[in-house]
Every structure is written in structure tokens, then in C-alpha cells.
Write a structure and sequence with these properties.
With 150 residues, the chain is mainly beta. It has one domain (22-138): Lipocalin (Beta Barrel), CATH 2.40.128.650. 12% of the residues lie in helices and 37% in strands. It has one helix and 13 strands. The protein has one helix spanning 2-19, and strands at residues 26-27, 34-37, 40-43, 55-56, 61-63, 69-71, 79-85, 89-96, 99-106, 112-115, 123-125, 129-132, 135-138. The longest helix has 18 residues, at 2-19.
Length: 150
């Protein structure tokens, strides 16, 4: 009986690892550039239109529930939709001309956890995959794409 229990646990751990976790990202609607996130707020800076902005200048600033704040890397600017959050991270889409880039940011310290190569095309994010144009990136155990090999 003990051997069956151990085998069941091993199978469960293996299949959970093999199948991968489901990351709980949801679309973040930034409104005019400020939105609640993780008990605090994100501020995307000045928008291109005061009533219905489609892009924001940055800098990206997170204000936490305790009143502290942090500012993301200055490269995280010219922000556009879509944005996503899982409550611990925010996925920010940026552009320069026709090229786009995605940043995964840690809400607590504004650190860039992952930065995409430049791409063109649409962005989509599912529970296990980030799609940038024609290229798909699997999300790793921390719900961020793994670092590119060096």
C-alpha cells in the first residue's frame, strides 16, 4: 500500500511538472493611465489622448499599499495595450516605430524579469504561452518566459 501511495505522489509531481502550471494572467485595463494592481496602483505616465489614450509616455511607476513606490527601467516607455497582470507581475507592451517589445515587471521592486526581443505583430498571453507575432514563448515555473540561452 505504501508503494502505491509513493508511486501516486511521484506520478502527480511528474505530470504537474510535465504539463506545466497554469499562470493566472488577466488583462489589465489602464483606463487613462492609472489602474489598481496588487493592492496598489500602476501609473503609465501621460497618455496620448486625455480621454481615451492608446499609448502612454512612461515612466511606469508602481505605488504599493504601504505608500512606497518604485519606477521601472526607463526603457519601459511608450507603453501600449495589451497589459496583463497576475497580481505579482505586470506584462507591459511597448513600441518604437513599428517594432514592439514586451517586459515582465515585478510589481514589488519594478525589476525587469524578462524582456522580449523586438518583434512585429500581435501579442497574446495564455495560461502557459506568450505569443509575439509568429513566435511563441512558453512560460516557465515563475510564469515568466525562461531567459534566452547565451
Amino acid at each position: 500500500m505504501k508503494a502505491i501511495h509513493i508511486l501516486t505522489i511521484a506520478f502527480t509531481v511528474y505530470t504537474s511538472t510535465a504539463v506545466g502550471q497554469a499562470c493566472a494572467y488577466k488583462t489589465l485595463e489602464p483606463g487613462v493611465g492609472k489602474a489598481p494592481v496588487a493592492g496598489g496602483a500602476i501609473d503609465l505616465g501621460a497618455g496620448d489622448d486625455p480621454l481615451k489614450p492608446q499609448a502612454w509616455q512612461g515612466p511606469v511607476v508602481f505605488t504599493h499599499a504601504d505608500g512606497t513606490s518604485c519606477t521601472a527601467d526607463p526603457d519601459v516607455s511608450l507603453v501600449e495595450r495589451p497589459l496583463f497582470t497576475d497580481g505579482r507581475r505586470v506584462v507591459v507592451s511597448t513600441y518604437s516605430g513599428s517594432e514592439r517589445r514586451i517586459y515582465f515587471l515585478d510589481i514589488n521592486n519594478c525589476r525587469t524579469l524578462w524582456k522580449s526581443p523586438t518583434f512585429s505583430g500581435d501579442v497574446s498571453l495564455t495560461a502557459q504561452t506568450l505569443r509575439l507575432g509568429e513566435k511563441a514563448h512558453k512560460l516557465g515555473p515563475l510564469c515568466v518566459p525562461p531567459a534566452a540561452p547565451h
